[in-house]
Amino acid sequence: MKELLLIIAAYLIGSIPTALIISKRFFGIDIRDYGSGNMGATNTFRVLGNRYGTMVMIFDILKGIFAVSLYTLLPYYFHNELERTNFMIGLGMAAVIGHVFPIYAGLRGGKGVATLFGMVLAMQPVVAISCVGVFLIVLYLTRYVSLSSILAALCLPICVLWIWNEHEVLYRVFALLVAVLVIFTHQKNIGRILRGVESRIPILKYRDRRKSRRKHN
């Protein structure tokens, strides 16, 4: 019963509509009426700019971290690594589902990538740092948050299954499902990338301007 209550609490944490709160508080708009229509960090970067996109990304990551950390309220899990890992996955996925289908925002949320990252960061910091490294490199090279998210998600099962060779079956299955989920939720982005019409976020735009000037000089 206690586990069920904590999973519900994790879902409610994940449901906090960070992007919607910020867009309404500072701009008086519903972020879902603009850009891709998603309530996540990528669309916030696109519509509201770097400052507010960064705020949304940080808060959405924290939702995953706080949700997974709820296991600490049950001392039993301190002494049982297998059960703790399984329960942490359950808590984290509840938060991700809350982000994608937030009860506070008519079940219209984001894609859950930042919350997934927070979840993995709380469970396996080294794996999470590896994934964020891939994310930042791809973002620097392309400025596509969607492509960066997809490749970072693909990095997760590679790290879990082969590089660190985690033996926990549920964790291995989770890593594979995350990669599939992120690809599935980014189908439209993949299509736009292939057509060359995917929006790039405005970071590093000065670098691109310098390159453009060099080409014309």
Your description of this structure?
There is one protein chain. The chain has 217 residues and is mainly alpha-helical. It has one domain (2-216). 72% of the residues lie in helices and 0% in strands. The mean pLDDT is 88.
Distance between the termini: 69 Å
- Which overall shape is indicated by the principal axes computed on the Cα atoms? globular
Determine the structural class based on helices, strands and strand pairing: mainly alpha
What share of the residues does DSSP label as strand, in percent? under 5%
Largest sheet: none
Number of domains: 1
| Strand segment count | 0
Query: What letter string, H or E per element, gives the SSE order?
Result: HHHHHHHHHHH
Which segments are poorly predicted (pLDDT under 50) over 5 or more consecutive residues? none
The radius of gyration is 18 Å
Question: Helix tally?
Answer: 11
How confident is the prediction overall: mean pLDDT?
88
Q: What is the helix content? A: over 70%
Salient structural properties:
mainly alpha; 217 residues
Q: What's the helix and strand layout?
A:
Elements: H1 2-14, H2 18-27, H3 41-48, H4 50-69, H5 81-100, H6 113-123, H7 125-142, H8 145-163, H9 169-185, H10 187-195, H11 205-216
Helix pairs in contact: 1-4, 1-5, 2-4, 3-4, 4-5, 4-6, 5-6, 6-7, 7-8, 8-9
